[in-house]
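Dear support,

We are seeing what looks like truncated structure output for some complexes. This example has two components. We would appreciate it if you could run it in full and send us the complete C-alpha cell output so we can diff it against ours.
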Amino acid sequence: MNFPFSVAKRFLTHNKGQSLLIILGIAIGVSVQIFIGLLISGLQDDLINTTVGSAPHITISSIEQNQTFDLTSSMMNSYTSNEELKYVALLADGSGFMLKDDENASILLRGGGQDAFDLYQLPSRLVEGKLPVTLNEIVVGSVLADNLNLTMNESVDIQSVSNSTQTFKVVGIVDLGVASLNERWAFTTLQSAQDFFNYEDALTSIEFQVNDVFLADEIASSLLLTSDLKISNWKESNAQLLSGLNGQSVSSIMIQVFVLVAVILGITSVLAITVLQKSRQIGILKAMGIQDSQASLIFLFQGLLLGVIGSLLGIGLGIGLILAFTTFATNPDGSALIPIQYDLRFISFSALIAIGSALLASLVPARKSSQLSPIEVIRNG
Amino acid sequence: MGNILQLANVSKVYGTKIKTQVLNEFNLEIEEGSFNSIIGQSGSGKSTLLNIIGTLDVPTQGEVIINGISTQKLTKKQLATLRNQTLGFIFQFHYLLPEFTVLENILMPYRMQNKKVTPEVMERALHLIDVVGLSKVKNNLATNLSGGQQQRTAIARALMNQPKIILADEPTGNLDSDTTDQIYDLMRSINQSMNTTFLIITHDQSVAERTDRIIEIKDGKIILDVQKKP
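Here is the complete output from our reference environment:
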C-alpha cells in the first residue's frame, strides 16, 4: 500500500473517537443536504403537479372571444413533430344547458380526442363508466351528475345557446378535483361537439401539455400560429406561484450551502488540530527523510477517507430520513404527504460535493504539514 | 579508511538583530566506520552541529560533505533522500510513532521510499529487532514499551536503511545507568559488525570514555580532540 495512505489510515483508526466525530459530522451534513434537497424538489413537483398537472400548459385560441378557427395542416404537422409537446389537445367547446325532467343546469360541453382526455387525466379520474368513444356519448362532472341525479347510460338532452337540442348518452362520471369544474364540465368526442355547435371542422382552442413545464413560455413562443390566433402559457397566469417556487429553490440552496460551509469548517478545524497533535510524528518522519509531498498526502488522504466514508454514511442516513418521512408523514389515504423522487444524480452530486469539500478542507493542514520543519519539533521536543 | 563526513569552515549564526554565533568556522573530519563522541557544556553548539550534519539545519556559511556529496546545493527533495538513505538519527527522546507497532516503526524509513516490503527487507527488520533484543514485543504499540525498549526501537529504526552514519543526540540521556550500558554496548556492536559510523553527543563521561575519539566543543569551537590508539 502507498505509504502516505497507510499512515493516514492508521492515524484515523488510532484516533477512533475523533475520526468517528468527523465522519458523523460529514454524514449529517450530507444527509441534511439530501433530505432538504429531495424534500423541496418533491414539494415543488407536487405543487406543480397539483397546479398544472391536469391543466393546459399552453393554450391557443382565437384573438376574438368565442370565435372558432381552422387548424391548418402545416400547423398540425409542426405540433405533432415537436418533441417538447406531450399532449396536443384539439378542442371544440360550447356553453349550453343540460335538461332533465323539469331541472336544468348550465354546462360547458368540451369536445376533444384522446389527447384532451389524457391532458385532463380523465382515465384515472373516472368515478364510474368509460370515456366517450362514439358520437353523442358524454362523461359528466361528479357534482353535475349529483345535481341532476344522472345515472349511467341515461340519455339527457342538451340545449345550445342557439337553441338547438341534442340527446346525449351518459357513459361516465369523472371527478376533476375542482368543485366548480365538476359542476359545469362535460366531455364528449370532438366530432359530437363540432356537429352539435355547428362548427363544421373548426376548433375553439388547442391546448398543450409540454414535457418540461418550466420551458412552457419558450416553447409557446416557438409554436407556429396564424395571425388570427393568440397564445398563452401557464407561467403568465401563475407568476406568484413561480416566484414562490423560486424562493423555495433559493432557500433550499442557501440551506445546503450553509450546511456545506459548516461541514468544511468542521473538517478543517479538526484536521488542523490533528496536524498540531501529529507535528511531532510528522517532524520525525521528515528527519527520517519523508518527502514534503508525501507528508502533505497523509493529510489529503485523511480528508479523502473521511469524505468518502462520511458521504456514504450520509447517503444512507439521508435515504433513511426520506423513507421515515414518506412512511410517517402521510395523507389520510395512506399515500405520502409529499411524494419524493430518489434523484440519483442529486444524491451522487451531494456526495461528490462533500468529498470535494473534505479534500478542500484538508488542503490547509496538508500545506501546514508540508511546511513543518523537523528541526522545530526536535528542538522544542 | 577515507572520510565519510567533512565540515569545512562551518559557521552558524542565529538571529538577525541580536546575533548569536553558535558555530565558529568549524572544521571536522570523521573517518568511515569510526565511533566518535562529542562532549561539551550546554549551549556549546553540540546539538546545532549535529543538526547541521544531519541536514536538518543549514549552516550560515561553510560546507558539509557527506559521503562525498556537498549538501550545499541539494534541493529539499534530495536532502530528504540523503537523510533517508545515508543518515540515521537517534534522539534523546525516541520519537516513535505511537500509532504503530515496534516492527512497523522500524520498517518506516524503508516504506517511506514507497517500495514494497520484500521478504528480504522483512528479514532485515526482524534481524534488527533481534539484535536490539525486542523480538518478544515486536507487535506491541510503541507506547506499550519501557523507556529502554523505546530507545532500542529507535536505534533499530535508525539502522533500517543501512545508513553510513548514525547521528545520536544524547541517546542515553533519559535512561538509567544499566540501560545506558546496554544501549552503549548495542551501538558498539553495530559499529563493529556493520561498519556504521557513529557520532554520539553525550553528557555521560562513561559513554564518552568508551568511544574511539572524543571531541570537546566550547563556544562553537573544538577545544579538545582525542583519538584513542586502536
